[in-house]
Design goal:
This protein is an all-alpha fold. The protein contains five helices and no strands. Helices cover about 70% and strands about 0% of the residues.
Length: about 180
């Protein structure tokens, strides 16, 4: 089916087994936007858009968690007046937020397909490796430039970091970390 109006409505029995309320809601949102703008899309395209939107929703929750972890760590280290407190905050944020992202992406975004078998431990390891580039190397390098070179506030720098690292994380997760 390549016409949007020929596709079954989200949540109907024909729309796919294993669909939950989250899938139904996101699928309905994507289909509604496509219908609103009278865009005809192949089913595979709609599936990819839906997956991207789900990743974005998980990403928003992960952004909030990441920022809160970063700020909490900075506040905990504040009495010690450490020049490298933002590095420690980035590491704590990385370790815990990647675990959060892995759990929800595995559960909601990059589910195993029928007949696919992937090791959860290998997927978690790949997720940590994938996020290591953007979560540790890129973010600390960018934090140094933003904070120490450009003089940007260390509470604002993580927000700028997330804008840069999020699209890169999606591609790495989709194309490598969650592959069987």
């Amino acid at each position: 089916m390549n016409r949007l109006d020929e596709r079954p409505e989200p949540g109907t029995p024909q729309s796919g087994a294993g669909e939950n309320a989250f899938d139904w809601l996101v699928s309905g949102l994507v289909n509604g936007i496509l219908k609103l703008f009278r865009i005809r899309a192949q089913e595979k395209t709609v599936e990819s858009l839906t997956q991207f939107v789900k990743f974005g929703i998980v990403g928003v929750s992960n952004t909030v968690i990441s920022y809160l972890l970063n700020v909490a760590t900075l506040k905990l280290l504040e009495p010690y007046h450490l020049s490298w407190d933002y590095v420690a905050a980035n590491v704590v944020e990385f370790l815990l937020s990647v675990l959060w992202a892995f759990y929800w992406n595995n559960k909601l975004v990059f589910r195993e397909k029928e007949g696919e078998k992937r090791s959860p431990w290998m997927t978690l390891l790949r997720t940590y490796i994938a996020y290591a580039f953007t979560g540790i190397l890129l973010k600390n390098g960018l934090s140094y430039v933003l904070i120490d070179v450009m003089g940007i506030n260390k509470y604002l720098a993580p927000v700028i970091n997330l804008v840069v690292s999020t699209p890169i994380n999606f591609l790495i997760n989709k194309l490598w970390a969650f592959k069987a």
